[in-house]
Write a structure and sequence with these properties.
Blueprint: E1 3-8, E2 17-20, E3 32-37, E4 40-51, E5 63-64, H1 72-85, H2 89-96, E6 111-115, H3 125-134, E7 140-141, H4 142-149, H5 153-162, E8 165-169, H6 190-203, H7 229-239, H8 241-259, E9 270-275, H9 281-294, E10 298-302, H10 310-320, E11 325-327, H11 333-344, E12 350-353, E13 365-370, H12 388-399, E14 403-407, H13 412-419, E15 424-428, E16 439-444, H14 458-469, E17 473-477, E18 486-489, E19 506-508, E20 513-515, E21 522-524, E22 538-541, H15 545-555, E23 561-564, H16 571-583, E24 589-592, E25 605-610, H17 624-636, E26 647-652, H18 658-665, H19 668-682, E27 689-697, H20 700-713, E28 720-723, E29 731-733, E30 736-745, H21 751-761, E31 769-774
Parallel strand pairs: 9-14, 9-15, 10-12, 10-13, 11-12, 13-14, 16-26, 17-24, 17-25, 23-24, 25-26
Antiparallel strand pairs: 1-2, 1-4, 3-4, 3-5, 6-7, 6-8, 18-22, 19-20, 20-21, 27-30, 27-31, 28-30, 29-30
Helix pairs in contact: 1-2, 1-12, 3-4, 4-5, 6-9, 7-8, 17-18, 18-19
The structure holds a DNA duplex (12 and 12 nucleotides).
DNA sequence: AGCACGCCGACT
DNA sequence: GTCGGCGTGCTC
């Protein structure tokens, strides 16, 4: 009987297509195949194979590709992702099957150089330095040589042209050398050692019989409403009975072999590793990773993209002897495929990566660590909308491997899950080495007013003066890029607004422009009001970091000041260099946006001044309080990581606001208690759920009209609230106008089917309108 | 995602 | 008259 393969294609298609399997080709579920699709050839993955009596008129599979097949657990993750996010299955598959683009192939060839023995024509000082380093005759990378000699790349290039250095193509950098779990033991504090012991005990089977955590599937879901794996399993059994069971059985056998345990009843837990800034969480989970590597299994460490720094990789290398394999959206071409293959064959033991690393085809995954678990960057906001932290928990459940969520300021969902016992909880209550957390005090802006036209309160100016006089570093934190967030005409009152989005245009004085921070629209800052024509009467309202820099430079003309924000002139490369400069103490006063709160350590910093602690508290986002607390806790925690204790001053109009009060008292527990109670009362996540219908169109009017029509078409069941387009801000995202109709539900509502119904019963989509669903939106705009 | 088909505007 | 813009629909 001829066999038919059900092939899932990584396109926005919700179901698999049937193809004939040509005689002589045997296909298994998970195989990656080439298939004809319309006029062209594409790749797809075998999602099922069946025998079909009717000799068919189906097109045949072209052939199997020589890449590792998609293993059962990963296929299960794809099915799960599609079901949970309501995305087409093919789109979910695309996450796991991003093969290198033919065009982007070709890894950048690295050039290795060594001394040729010929003397340079003109031996300058810089050239001699390079030749001194190269004298040993060893082959080095160009940039490595330049760095070692302390000169720029052009000197090395000059010497190559000159013939004093000879250049050869270097073998491509190995993707990763095997990490050594016993390379270096870093000294651990008593608290850290305890945490390591607990963590490793929880991760491995043979727990005391009554000490078993309740399995929980999804971080953000309310109790009992996460679609269970059992349900998903049943669904699979219906659609692909034999193949799936075989795959699962194979996976289980494999699991027994690699762990040598095979305790069927052991459910690997999700563990919240909570530790204040500077408590050494990283060292703790490194030990868990080491334990996992010793057992011959693989480890995945997820990080927010921004935190994937050389600094972190070096720390890893100190502990494990080599840098880990890294994975992020920028890795392309051949290297991408080599990492995928290495991971699938089990040759790569540890991957550190951004959210997309979650879909790598690990052969035997032993642990997933989600560092900075609370970071919003884990949310994918286009294409398939998913939260990498939640999917990590799901993948851990599927692979039956432990998941460690690490954070100094866990998200509310994760805290609640830990408190309810669905996650295990390990707390590192103290900073490493007995260092104190910074003292935080409020500057009440109602009484301690800055002078007219200035934004820094006198007490903060004094604190900065004291700090820099002592030779220490001060950070002034303001989460606002640009010069001023709003510009208005004093003659007619006109406020400059983005023509695309519902936002004010931000003045960027350095660029002499008014810029929309939503869509990037920019116009030259006009001399005269575009509305009434009055000259020289535009007023900047409120401060951005550029304006603070102006003030600081006037106050401290002889101090070195650096402004750090994501739009740093010169791009990410220069920004990295500047962060390095700051870390090395090459600057007295740093003025920065939220970027300084993340990832980098500044050992010379002893004072943090928060210029507007209230920003964000009134944004209307249901997660505003949580966000502000996390951000301010992180940024104030930057103070005093070195020898000296740190302190922080918060400029605020609301010292009694629960968020501010919790920061001031250093009582994070209080914040969590209050916020959790408030969320529960309001039916907000994790007790209820948020979802958004994203209505987008290339034409603004069409997007608005359709958004309104959909909002009218909503017939919310009891307990569901729909926020209409009046409240939904409009934004231009990648060339399309986009609305988010927000839906708030109580815990018992099946959100997925409600949203599906809503779209189905809504107005027939005409024009180029797309409606996407964001199951748990992390923000409004 | 590609690619064709088809419908409207502006140009050698 | 066509060239070409993009909106629409289909691919087992």
């Amino acid at each position: 009987m001829p066999s038919v393969a059900e092939i899932l294609i990584p396109l926005a298609l919700d179901s698999a297509y049937s193809y004939a399997v040509p005689a002589g080709l045997t296909l298994a579920v998970g195989d990656v195949v080439q298939i004809p699709l319309g006029p062209r050839e594409t790749v797809g993955v075998v999602w099922g194979v069946r025998q079909s009596p009717g000799g068919s008129n189906l097109r045949p599979v072209t052939g199997r590709l020589d890449v590792p097949p998609l293993a059962g657990p990963l296929r299960e993750l794809v099915d799960w992702l599609a079901r949970y996010t309501l995305a087409p299955k093919g789109s979910a598959l695309a996450m796991a099957l991003r093969l290198p683009d033919e065009a982007a192939q070709g890894e950048t060839v690295r050039i290795g150089v060594r001394a040729s023995g010929r003397p340079p024509a003109r031996p300058t000082a810089a050239r001699l330095k390079v030749l001194g380093v190269a004298a040993d005759g060893a082959l080095r990378g160009k940039s490595a040589l330049a760095k070692e000699a302390g000169v720029s790349l052009s000197v090395v290039d000059g010497l190559i042209d000159d013939g004093a250095l000879e250049a050869t193509a270097l073998a491509p950098e190995p993707v990763a050398l095997p990490p050594d779990p016993d390379h270096a033991r870093v000294p651990l504090s008593e608290a850290q050692a305890d945490a390591v012991r607990d963590l490793i005990a929880m991760m491995n089977p043979a727990p005391p019989p009554d000490d078993r955590p309740e399995p929980c599937l999804l971080n953000g879901a309310g109790q009992g409403e996460a679609p269970g794996l059992s349900a998903e399993g049943a669904h699979l059994a219906e659609t692909h009975p034999i193949q799936e069971r075989q795959a699962v059985a194979a996976a289980e056998t494999h699991h027994k072999l690699t762990t040598g345990v095979g305790d069927e009843t052991f459910r690997a837990p999700t563990i919240l590793l909570e530790g204040v800034t500077g408590s050494g969480k990283t060292e703790v989970y490194f030990e868990a990773v080491a334990d996992c590597v010793r057992r011959g299994r693989q480890a995945l460490i997820l990080m927010p993209e921004i935190a994937l720094t050389a600094q972190f990789l070096d720390r890893f290398a100190e502990r494990f002897g080599v840098r880990p394999a890294t994975w992020h959206s920028g890795i392309g071409g051949k290297r991408r495929e080599r990492i995928r293959a290495g991971v699938a064959l089990g040759e790569i033991a540890v991957v550190v990566g951004a959210r997309s690393a979650l879909f790598l085809p690990f052969a035997h995954l032993g642990i997933v660590v989600v560092d900075e678990e609370h970071e919003a960057a884990y949310k994918q906001e286009d294409g398939v909308h998913y939260h990498a932290r939640d999917m990590a928990v799901v993948r851990g459940r599927i692979e039956n491997c432990p998941v460690v969520l690490a954070s100094a300021t866990p998200s509310i969902e994760t805290r609640v899950n830990a408190e309810r016992g669905r996650y295990r909880h390990i707390v590192l209550p103290e900073r490493f080495g007995g260092r104190r957390l910074p003292d935080i005090t409020a500057l009440d802006m109602r009484s301690d007013k800055p002078e007219r036209g200035s934004f820094i309160a006198p007490a903060l100016v004094a604190a900065v003066r004291e700090t820099v006089a002592a030779g220490d570093q001060a950070l002034l934190f303001l989460n606002r890029r640009g010069y001023a967030p709003l510009t208005l005409c004093r003659a007619c009152g006109h406020r400059y607004q983005c023509r695309n989005c519902s936002t004010w245009l931000v003045e960027h004085r350095f660029r002499k422009a008014l810029v929309c921070h939503q869509c990037g629209y920019a116009e030259r800052r006009p001399e005269a009001c575009t509305e009434c024509g009055t000259f020289d009467n535009l007023t900047p309202c409120g401060p951005g970091v550029e304006r603070i820099a102006e003030e600081v430079t006037a106050l401290f003309p002889d101090k070195r000041v650096i402004v750090l924000s994501s739009d740093f002139p010169g791009g990410a490369e220069r920004l990295r260099a500047e962060l390095q400069t700051v870390a090395e103490g090459g600057c007295d006063i740093v003025i920065g946006t939220q970027l300084v709160a993340k990832g980098h350590n500044f050992p010379h910093l002893t004072l943090v001044g928060v210029l507007d602690a209230d920003i964000g508290l009134t944004s209307g986002d249901p997660r505003a309080a949580e966000r502000t607390f996390q951000l301010l806790q992180q940024v104030t925690g930057r103070a005093g990581r070195g020898e000296k204790p740190g302190r922080a001053l918060l400029q605020t109009f609301q010292p009694d606001h629960p968020v501010i009060a919790a920061l001031l008292s250093g009582d994070a527990e209080r914040f969590y208690e209050e916020e959790i109670a408030a969320r529960e009362a309001a039916g907000l996540p994790p007790f209820g759920r948020l979802a958004a219908l994203i209505v987008s169109a290339a034409d603004r009017a069409v997007a608005e009209a359709h958004g309104q029509a959909l909002a009218r078409a909503a017939e919310p069941p009891e307990g569901v609230m729909v926020l209409g387009p009046a409240e939904a801000p409009l934004a231009l995202v990648r060339g399309r106008y986009r609305f988010r109709l927000l839906v708030k539900t109580e815990r018992s509502v099946d959100l997925q089917s409600y949203l599906r119904d809503w779209i189905a019963r809504g107005p027939k989509v005409r024009g180029n309108v797309k409606v996407a669903i964001d199951v748990d939106p992390q923000s409004f705009l």
